[in-house]
């Protein structure tokens, strides 16, 4: 249970509680994975839930983390709202900093869009001891 479901900055639960769950299966030697994720949403063209089906390949090649895959966004009962994305990501950690470069291609029946994003984040362990 989550207080709000936001996707790319937009509340899909209308700032209300959302029930969510996920299951992922990974084949560790190869890096192949598949799974689904689901959430309740505010009514969207007849749909009251989102089901994301995804599959891909993720592997660490030396210091670089790679992830390539596809996600289908399904809205059961919704009218013309389903879509899919293809994605590729590469990341690297520099001590407490991590950086990611990603490319996403998004497709619906009416819209095709490509995006490139970068992110840099710093993480400090809550268990880090000061000296």
Task: Give a quick rundown of the structure.
The chain is an all-beta fold.
Describe it.
This protein has strands at residues 6-7, 10-11, 20-27, 32-44, 47-61, 64-74, 83-94, 97-107, 112-122. The protein has 131 residues and is mostly beta strands. It has one domain. The strands form two sheets. Strands 3-4-5-6-7-8-9 form a seven-stranded antiparallel sheet, with no helix packed on it.
Task: Lay out the secondary structure.
Layout: E1 6-7, E2 10-11, E3 20-27, E4 32-44, E5 47-61, E6 64-74, E7 83-94, E8 97-107, E9 112-122
Antiparallel strand pairs: 1-2, 3-4, 4-5, 5-6, 6-7, 7-8, 8-9
Search tags:
131 residues, mainly beta, two-stranded antiparallel sheet, Porin, CHP02001
The parts where pLDDT drops under 50 for at least 5 residues are: none
The helix content is under 10%
- Overall geometry comes to globular
Structural class assignment? mainly beta
Q: What is the straight-line distance between the termini? A: 39 Å
- From the alpha carbons, calculate the radius of gyration and give it in angstroms: 17 Å
Strand order of the largest sheet: 3-4-5-6-7-8-9
Beta-strand content bin:
over 45%
Mean pLDDT: 83
Q: What kind of sheet is the major sheet?
A: 7 strands, antiparallel
| Total beta strand runs | 9
Number of helices: 0
Order of helices and strands: EEEEEEEEE
Whole-number count of domains: 1
Protein name: Porin
Pfam family, one: Gcw_chp
